[in-house]
Amino acid sequence: MPRPPKSSQSNTCNFLLAFLALWSCVSLVVIIVWATWPHMRNHNQSLCEAAKQTAIEKLEGVRVIWNKDQHTLTEQLKGSRETQASLESELESVMDRVGEANVALMGSLQEKEIMKVNITTFKIVLETHVALQRNLSSVQALQQAHSDWLQANWTWSLHHWDSCNALVSAAKSHQVAAESQNKACTSAHAHLTKRL
Predict the structure, then answer these.
(1) What is the helix, strand, coil percentage profile of the chain, to 5?
(2) Cα–Cα distance measured from residue 66 to residue 63, given in angstroms and rounded to the nearest whole number
(3) For labelling, which of 30, 102, 131, 145 has a CA lying 20 to 30 Å from the CA of 86?
(4) Rounded to whole angstroms, how far apart are CA atoms 38 and 30?
(5) 94-105, pLDDT tens digit by residue?
(6) Does residue 27 carry a pLDDT above 90?
């Protein structure tokens, strides 16, 4: 059964107290009027006693009801205080968890910012490496072209060297032939000179 709110309990209590006070005042007025009215005194003595008895019985009934309501309200107030204490404890626990979650969230946000900075740094480093790789590729292409030129030049130099060696060999052969021919000519000249 749900407990009524605190203001509702207070209103019920105030209503019962006001009703008891009003009932008491009305009963006193009726009793005083009947007691002081002389021509009605004898006639209404029995009625007054009956009304008084009825009023006392009603008052006792109201007191019993009031005591019962007071006890019920006290129990409800005790229960509501226990519920309030339990809710306050639970609220404190929830607030502690919220605080821990906030701390964890702040840590996550800081890690996220650090990761953003790291990603930006990695991007810059990656772009630098890409540019460096392009430069190295260009340098490698230039070196390859230079190497090809040197290889071609070396091959030409070898052919030129072989050609020069062949020319030297041919020149030596011509020299030997010329020397032989010179010797032959000298012999022939000497032989002709003897004949003359």
Answers:
(1) 95, 0, 5
(2) 5
(3) 102
(4) 14
(5) 999 999 999 999
(6) no
